[in-house]
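Example complex used in Figure S2.
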Amino acid sequence: MDPKLGRMASALLALLLLLDGGMLSSPAPPPGPLEKIGRYIDLHQDEFVQTLREWVAVESDSVQPVPRLRQELLRMMAMAAEKLQRLGASVDSVDLGSQQLPGGQSLPLPPILLAELGNDPRKPTVCFYGHLDVQPAKQGDGWLADPYTLTEVDGKLYGRGATDNKGPVLAWINAVSTFGAVEQDLPVNVKFVLEGMEEAGSVGLEELVRREKERFFAGVDYILISDNLWLSRKKPALTYGTRGNSYFLVEVKCRTQDFHSGTFGGILHEPLADLVALLGSLVDSSGHILIPGIYDSVAPLTEDEKDTYKAVDLDLEEYRNSSQVEKFLFETKEEILMHLWRYPSLSIHGIEGAFDEPGAKTVIPGRVVGKFSIRLVPHMNVSVVEKQVKRHLEDVFSKRNSPNHMTVSMVVGLQPWLANTDDNQYLAAKRAIRTVFGREPDMIRDGSSIPIAKIFQDTLQKSVLMLPLGAVDDGEHSQNEKINRWNYIEGSKLFAAFFLEMAKLH
Amino acid sequence: MDPKLGRMASALLALLLLLDGGMLSSPAPPPGPLEKIGRYIDLHQDEFVQTLREWVAVESDSVQPVPRLRQELLRMMAMAAEKLQRLGASVDSVDLGSQQLPGGQSLPLPPILLAELGNDPRKPTVCFYGHLDVQPAKQGDGWLADPYTLTEVDGKLYGRGATDNKGPVLAWINAVSTFGAVEQDLPVNVKFVLEGMEEAGSVGLEELVRREKERFFAGVDYILISDNLWLSRKKPALTYGTRGNSYFLVEVKCRTQDFHSGTFGGILHEPLADLVALLGSLVDSSGHILIPGIYDSVAPLTEDEKDTYKAVDLDLEEYRNSSQVEKFLFETKEEILMHLWRYPSLSIHGIEGAFDEPGAKTVIPGRVVGKFSIRLVPHMNVSVVEKQVKRHLEDVFSKRNSPNHMTVSMVVGLQPWLANTDDNQYLAAKRAIRTVFGREPDMIRDGSSIPIAKIFQDTLQKSVLMLPLGAVDDGEHSQNEKINRWNYIEGSKLFAAFFLEMAKLH
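Predicted assembly (1012 residues):
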């Protein structure tokens, strides 16, 4: 063969191989692995929905500590363990012992499932975290149907746990199982951490992660969590940061008992008046925090960063309507996103010890505890904030010359979290989203603190990715929680595409 | 007979009569009516205590709406009606029908007893108000003995209702009955209004007083209430005024549901921040009310009035200790009394709708209701105060440019009450106190509003006297409520002396 022809043939072969990989669109290419997978998932979607129906049917409520529900939760974990075993994974069902309740009663804790599938040293190892417990729900709370019977209306799958978090857990399992079904090699090693106490504070999880750091988690390269939502109904998102939180209690005490306002009103330094002055010194009417120094460490805003907010899909009018808020502090999308994600905020939550019931009680509370918290952003530091808050409150209080006793304590201190979006798994997730959804993802942060991300980040020092599947209106924790069939099915494809992209980038 | 001798004999006779009246002390005068009465009461004090024991034994709790207690209350009213009949009074037991409870249940209301004894047009008619219901009490709350078994320790008669108000009601009855026992003409016509729902808001009383204005109350000259306490343990008191009260609710609403501080913190005009600013604008750290105009109508302080506070028996050190208050807003007795009695005060009571439980909930309340009240003094006017408060809050709120909705409402509006202490019954009461206790009474006011005094004052336009019998440490409404045997017995004498003085002054 003419060497020229030979080179041409080689080039043609290479092109065909490339086409087979699904990287180029052409009139009729032979299906690539992702296309096969996508077709399989589409064809079997009713089976996937059926499995979700079976999982939703288990009332795995971890919040209400009653024996019947705890049994349901244990049953849920056993079902999941069996599902993972059928997938071919080796499953370690880690017993966490029992939970002591305040009344002296005790309840068994659900095990945490540590599962792994594949240990090819040439492949990256991705660890998926999810939870199978749910918030309480009963039809009488305002559900249109029984919350534990998955009910489909207009492509929406209503049911407790559908989006938080049973749907995303199953989407991950669907993606893994489909590789087997279409006889494709799973391009990544997969690990699972599935817990059953997330809604009740992830009892035992942090300790387990620490204990398993050098064992189960030793080979893990990436951690993926899919336990939040998009910012939009239709546009996928990647979450790359969460705010931290520092929660303060400020107690002002005159004496333990309350006073009668007729008998003592007029001669007391009233603790509640002191507290109202303290709380009133924290933030002005434009939302600006008045604690000296609080903004000192906030990361400066760059032009590049500004552009990222412009790209985010947020329909302000719809957001306002769905929030039922007449007017926000800010007028533009960019300002709103920045004040939810990259600037600190201070909220006053309430007062313990004052009169809080309906009616008109003439009481002067003897001891009151005000509660407020500051959402922290990069590069604020929890301990610095704690000092600033205490110094400020002491200043304000000392100016009142009150003989009452003030005590300030920080009861929660969570650092903000910000991922490096140039990490491989962020790049892989972006590409997978482009492939499956045909568009760029919203790059979003979460204004809340997500303790689970922080636990993995701090304990394992690995890259954590939050890749949500659910739409903004899924109603986690609310009545009529749902996941759209489209999100569930396309989400299963997204995870499969993510595996392929990870393998390429690794 | 020589006319001179005749005149001398007449003068001597007059002198003897005067001595017989007990107005002069002399080595061995024949006993006057009050002396006889005092001796009788001393001799029969155990019987009087025994009656109090029988009355305290009835658990006439009007606060807890349960059938068993309501039956006890009806039994108490029947016992009192019988007691008054045995006294010779004609008793009208006015049926008030039944009380509808929120649950749909209904309970019979105890009758109000309207009783009268004597209708001599030459005598003054004094109407005594008292109540026979009590606050709830059970030994487990911290009582040293069963609250419904009158228990005497060191001259203290412990039992629920002993001082509030069964003891004073019986002291009045003891005084009346003793005139009969020592065969003395009762120098006044006596009427009784005894109710059984005082601790539950005097259900039906105001309407009855209005309805009976031209009938039962037509001949009444004076109204006497003995349902409060002295300011001292030993020194008797006369109460000549109470503060009024205006109770405000200020609602700030963004939406009905709460927000999550992670998801919304930073972009909201938070209702609780608005409310804290509103409440913080009401009073400064020295207790001075900041509402413009609020002090305009406060009666100017005269030198004479100042002197009345000097005379009041109040041991500041003991007061501070028993109140468990380290430091009051003011240093002197006079300032403290004036700020409790003759200056308005503003107290913040609490907030409805905010987070009020233990723990650290990251909520932004969507709708909050602040509660505060102003104790009113002569010559403040409830409707003027209402306008001033609303205008002030609207001013403060408008400066915040908040899109939230503020609503201010005044839910209680009670005018202050001040008696004319030159009234006959005040003079008579002072003289009776001098006679029985050998000292001047403390002239006191009450910082609280006493609705019952206002009802009589406003409806009947008669002079109302508050003549307490109990000592400052009697513990009305508390555990271990008591009346001292000394207060109960000397109090019975005091009422008898009061009858005699009233008759003289009329």
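Chain B touches chain A through 74 residues (CB under 8 Å). Confidence is low (pLDDT under 50) at residues 1-6, 8-26 of chain B.
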